[in-house]
Design a protein that fits this description.
The protein is of the alpha/beta class and 419 residues long. Helix content is 44%, strand content 15%.
């Protein structure tokens, strides 16, 4: 079996951590048991480009139980957990191509290795597999059943491809599922981003000014958790409706140029480029911290930051690079501008990834069940699957809810009833 991981000797530690996460993933456990009986992916090749974490490992095992032949590559050079990668190779015989800290050349070699398995279904965090297939592996398009995409950034790329008529097979927008973005993006990103920033800096959040760029589901989760830790949260936005929401949620809202001189910690999760740029760096105070929680390392203009520095950046702590400006100010970049929650921490808690990866698994099955019936483009997960995942999650938490009585159903579906 072909693979490329850091060290297979790490496998046993990885197994213990995978099992620990599994205990918090009751929904995915149930899906795995169902897949093992039904074998929906028997004879099917799945290529995954995802963060290689304990939670992802449990998804891979569930897909394998369903009969899938899987190859897994990292979706970010700093997000791999090396012991998990080793365990998947050793204990599950899944080809993994992922090493934490790999350079860009190795990253793309790993993408190529995953595509060499000629996948019929792709699973992406950021749409790198899909875009690479369309750019340089068009021979694979004819065998593709479709793919799934989990990130906001990836969905943006896919919708752009679809709008240009460039997307040549159906994609399931897992990120748009309610059980994904309402929970993973908000509660998962919020907690894990703060976890990464605190681990990297050991800073006290209480009393500090935390500037959160954007107020989508990820950013509002970050704002919520920063606020809960006692920070003074400032939100910047380009969308007037989201800005109004942030105001009514109790946050200060202002343009980034006004926030730049007063922020202590800056966090971006917008999916756009150069959210923190040269003209912002010029105004930031000495010691300001820059962190990114968007998928790609483009939200902080690292080229401008390096160009402004009067000396080579200094690694002052693990995952903290300090850039000294001409006037002596020091700006601290966390995690090389990559996903701070995975660069310096462990990513989202397993309990919330349980729902997201249940969505991934069910979306893959939906593609297979509807092979040849879906148009090329981006498709949403049926709301019935969302409700099923939510019901299983509630049951795993020991929580019951009400159901409508026949009388109530009749009332809600009648136009004749009124005041």
């Amino acid at each position: 079996m072909d693979y490329d991981v850091k060290n297979l000797d790490l496998a046993q530690g990885g197994r213990l951590r995978i099992d620990w996460a599994r205990n918090e993933m009751a929904v995915l456990q149930g899906i795995q048991e169902r897949f093992a009986e039904e074998r929906p992916f028997a004879g099917l090749r799945i290529g995954a480009c995802m963060h290689v974490t304990t939670e992802t490992a449990n998804l891979m095992v569930a897909l394998q139980a369903g009969g899938a032949d899987i190859a897994l590559a990292a979706s970010n050079p700093l997000s791999t957990q090396d012991d998990v990668a080793a365990s998947l190779v050793t204990h599950n015989e899944i080809p993994v191509y992922a090493i934490k800290g790999e350079d860009d050349e190795t990253y793309y070699q790993h993408l190529e290795a995953a595509l060499a398995h000629k996948p019929q279904v792709t699973m992406d965090d950021g749409a790198d597999l899909v875009s690479t297939i369309h750019k340089s592996h068009r021979d694979l398009i004819d065998i593709m059943v479709g793919g799934t995409e989990e990130t906001t950034t990836g969905i943006i790329r896919l919708r752009a491809m679809a709008a240009d008529g460039a997307l040549k097979f159906p994609m399931m927008a897992v990120n748009d599922a309610l059980t994904k973005h309402l929970f993973d993006n908000r509660y998962g990103t919020g907690q894990s981003t703060m976890d990464g920033i605190i681990r990297a800096t050991n800073y006290l959040l209480a009393g500090s000014n935390v500037v959160v760029a954007g107020y989508g589901w990820c950013s509002r989760g970050i704002a919520m958790r920063a606020n809960g830790l006692g920070a003074n949260v400032i939100v910047t936005e380009v969308d007037p409706l989201k800005a109004l929401e942030a105001v009514m949620d109790g946050y200060r809202v202002m343009p980034m140029m006004e926030a730049a001189p007063i922020g202590d910690i800056f966090v971006s999760a917008t999916g756009d480029i150069h959210v923190f740029d040269r003209h912002h760096f010029e105004l930031m105070k000495d010691g300001a911290v820059l962190a990114n929680s968007g998928h790609f390392d483009v939200e902080i203009n690292k080229v401008a930051l390096l160009d402004m520095a009067v000396e080579e950046p200094k690694r002052v702590r693990p995952f903290v690079d300090q850039y000294t400006m001409a006037d002596g100010r020091r700006l601290n970049l966390l995690g090389e501008g990559r996903l701070i929650n995975l660069a310096a921490a462990e990513g989202h808690p397993a309990a919330v990834m349980d729902m997201s990866f249940a969505g991934q698994a069910m979306a893959a099955k939906y593609l297979v069940d509807n092979q040849g019936q879906l148009e090329n483009g981006v498709h949403t997960i049926p709301v019935e699957l969302d409700h099923e995942i939510a019901r299983i999650k509630l049951a795993s938490m020991g929580i019951g809810i009400d159901t409508l009585t026949p009388e109530q159903v009749t009332y809600l579906n009648s136009w004749e009833e009124g005041t």
